[in-house]
Amino acid sequence: MTTDTTTGMAERGGTNTAVATWEGDWLCSVEAGGFRLVVDEPVEFGGSGLGPMPTDLLLASLSSCYALALAWAARKRDVRLPDLRVTATGRYVGQKFGELVLTVETSLGADEVAPLLEPARKVCYVSNTFANIPDVHVELAPDRMIAGK
To answer: From the CB of residue 52, how many other CB atoms can be counted at a distance below 10 Å?
Structure first.
């Protein structure tokens, strides 16, 4: 891990992985960061409604990452952040989000929180990923077989 001298924030190196295993119908189990998650579609879309949709997780990643980045920016500037809620809203355009909007709510005055918004955006890994969209490559595993099957 290296530290960015402009932000003082540690930068991650290497890779990060999440593994989704299809469980049938529209249900997947996902292992990520040592945690197991359930991902599904709502009943009205043919799922069983046992977990959030993939796009819900995407919005959860964005809102939580930005909230943590905003808390970091406040700490770095000795600003006491009494409370914080960040809502991520995705507006669908066909089979993707055409716009993502972050809404920040806090009882901290606007004059105190506004200067934190841009420093937080600069260190938010998820919003930075959207701002600089990486290529997505789909590969077939070399042996094409799931281990143990």
So the answer is: 17
Rounded to 5 degrees, what are φ and ψ at 135?
-70, 145
User: Can you tell me the distance from the alpha carbon of 121 to that of 100, in angstroms, rounded to the nearest whole number?
Assistant: 13
Q: Find tokens 């094409």 and name the residue.
A: 144
Domain segments of the chain as ranges: 1-52, 53-133
Residue 45: DSSP 8-state? G
Confidence of residue 147 (pLDDT cuts 50, 70, 90): low
| Alpha helices (H) in the chain, listed in sequence order | 54-76, 110-123, 125-131
Looking at the whole model, is its pTM more than 0.90?
no
Give helix 110-123 / helix 54-76 axis angle, nearest 10°. 120
The two structure tokens encoding residue 144: 């094409």
CATH class of 53-133: alpha beta
What does the pLDDT look like over 33-70, one tens digit per residue? 999 999 999 999 999 999 999 999 999 999 999 999 99
